[in-house]
Amino acid sequence: MNSDYTTETLSDWKEIKQILLLFNVSFPRSLIDRVGDLEKYARKLAENAIVFSICMEDKVLGFAACYCNDKLNKQAYLAQIAVNDAYRRLNLGSCLMKLCIETARQKGMEKLILEVDDDNVAAQNLYAKYEFIKTGKASGTSHYFERIL
Fold it and tell me: Which helix (H) or strand (E) holds 86?
């Protein structure tokens, strides 16, 4: 990663909510359409997930949120990953993905799962790069993918 970029782990729901608002329309379906109340979702992420941001100076370029709390099944869940359109193709998504994979391993997880919309080709390409395999239909417009850690 370029030394001009920094990564942070966020735990303040208010900071997380600001990032969710910033990236709300960065997905084929907005975050609000997918999760509803962003404040409630930000609080849930702050309490239960690990949220990473990648920044340059004071600008948030991307973020990822990963749950690593299913100790029984040893499965982590990548809830969100996004990079600002203007900063794509700089390997920032890869940096965030590596952080999530390594953190899940460190937390004792054996599998990383996620759900992706069928029309989100950019995300599917990133997941293929990291050897995620499509495992089944999640909804009428999305699929589950997983990767053994």
Answer: none
Quick one: which of 130, 68, 121 has its CA closest to 96?
A: 130
Backbone angles phi, psi at 30, to 5 degrees: -60, 155
Place domain 5-148 in its CATH homologous superfamily.
Gcn5-related N-acetyltransferase (GNAT) (3.40.630.30)
pLDDT at 76: 98
- What does the angle CA 110 – CA 23 – CA 8 come to, to the nearest 5 degrees? 55
pLDDT mean by block of 10 residues, the chain; 149 residues: 82 97 89 93 98 94 97 97 90 95 97 94 92 95 96
**Residue among 87, 68, 71 nearest 79 (CA):** 68
Q: Using an 8 Å Cβ cutoff, are 118 and 134 in contact? A: no
Whole-number CA gyration radius for the chain: 14
Q: For the whole model, what pTM was predicted? A: 0.91
Q: How far apart are CA 140 and CA 146, in angstroms?
A: 18
**What amino acid is encoded at 80 in this protein?**
Q
Rounded to the nearest angstrom, the gap between the alpha carbon of residue 105 and the centroid of all alpha carbons in its chain is: 16
Q: Tell me the C-alpha distance between 97 and 103, whole Å.
A: 10
